[in-house]
Amino acid sequence: VCHLSLMSLSLSLSLALLLSLLHLPALCLAHGNSGPTKANCHPQSHIVFLKTHKTASSTILNILYRYGESRNLTFALPQNKHSQLFYPFFFASHFVEGVSTKSVREFHIMCNHMRFRKSEVTKVMPEDTFYFSILRHPVAMMESIFTYFKSIPAFHTTHSLDEFLDNSWRNYNSSVLNNHYAHNILAFDFGFDNNVAAGAEDLEERATMAIATIEQDFHLILISEYFDESMILLKHVLCWSLEDVASFRLNSRSEKTRHLLLPNTAEKIKRWNALDWRIYLHFNTTFWHKVGSVVGQEKLNKEISQLKELQAKLANICLKDGGAVDPSQVKDVGLKPFQYGAAIIQGYNLNPHLDRQMKTKCQRLVTPELQYTDHLYTQQFPEATLLHLPMAGAAPLPRHRSPP
Ligand SMILES: *[C@@H]1O[C@H](CO)[C@@H](O)[C@H](O)[C@H]1NC(C)=O
Ligand SMILES: *[C@@H]1O[C@H](CO)[C@@H](O)[C@H](O)[C@H]1NC(C)=O
Ligand SMILES: *[C@@H]1O[C@H](CO)[C@@H](O)[C@H](O)[C@H]1NC(C)=O
């Protein structure tokens, strides 16, 4: 009897071992890129950031631009000086400048707006690329989108967000260009079909499929509501320094154009954007698990204070007015943020008394997305820039006035 039970014990043990071995490759894949431990910490410089809408992603873009520019890394920039990778079309590798002509040997960072399609991204980016993105609470996001994209057909004739939500299926025609902003925009940006009704039979199935695909394609999903926590987690996972993830908030709205939502409105948004809501809830949970396992609460709190201290110090040195100002008060055209919709996007003035080195550093911190993209393109493709240079010596103006 004893012999038998021992045997069955060893059998179940080896079964467990076998199972764990079977799971090992998956685990390695999931974690291989996601968190360099102290022992093998090596700064990651092959990066894809899926830039999502109204999620503080412009601030992350600036972080990536500065990181890459200061280390001479190569960006997978939109062809012909566009500001986006032909969003809202599905991404295709030839959208990237230098891919068709094979003029770029190696790309390090890809981070401009695209509708994600992994199979095409992998044609451009190296195999060991780290993929990440950021999500925002769908209720706050919808409020922001309604203000910013007020001119899209779905919102155009409605006076309030409630009015839109109460008649959403009447106001919203999914075949009309730009209406995707109004419905499950997160799912859309990640490359999924965003048109699914809250009561749809296949909602759960589609949400599960979307979540599983994102889990597979991305190493890290950050959460906009926890931006500081996100930056600390990112720093650890990429093996970067605190200074690398320090930033000033960019493409941010003035408080004047923010609207408080009623609880009832929030519920309607969760129903209307049911797919995004499920995706968000899932990745909010995995985000906190990752913060716990990679950083830990104590270190997290400590590093957030350090980050805030560093950012306050930088603001003190770099900014004339100590913080963000309305766009009409931004003196330098090169630093004026692009304005769109009914939102007022704030900008910064630089402190005029900076030495050359500090000025460069500060300038990079406050350069808005469109101007910075333009600048990087010019640096990376000086010949192409000469060909379609409109006015020599003029301040760099964004060529493509599609909303960032
Ligand atoms: C980047 O390139 C410039 C110009 O070629 C060079 O002077 C500089 O040292 C490089 N910086 C790094 C970090 O490699
Ligand atoms: C939705 O838009 C398409 C394309 O513009 C149009 O053909 C169709 O009739 C519209 N549907 C409704 C219900 O208005
Ligand atoms: C996200 O996770 C945090 C931490 O667990 C929790 O406090 C918060 O309520 C979550 N957000 C939502 C919308 O569930």
TrEMBL record:
SUPFAM superfamilies from the UniProt entry = P-loop containing nucleoside triphosphate hydrolases (SSF52540)
Q: Output the superkingdom of the source species.
A: Eukaryota
Q: Name one GO molecular function term.
A: galactosylceramide sulfotransferase activity
Membrane topology note: Single-pass type II membrane protein
Q: What's in the GO CC field?
A: Golgi membrane
Q: Which residues cross the membrane?
A: none
Sorted alphabetically, the Gene Ontology BP terms of this entry are:
glycolipid biosynthetic process
This chain's protein is named: Galactose-3-O-sulfotransferase 2
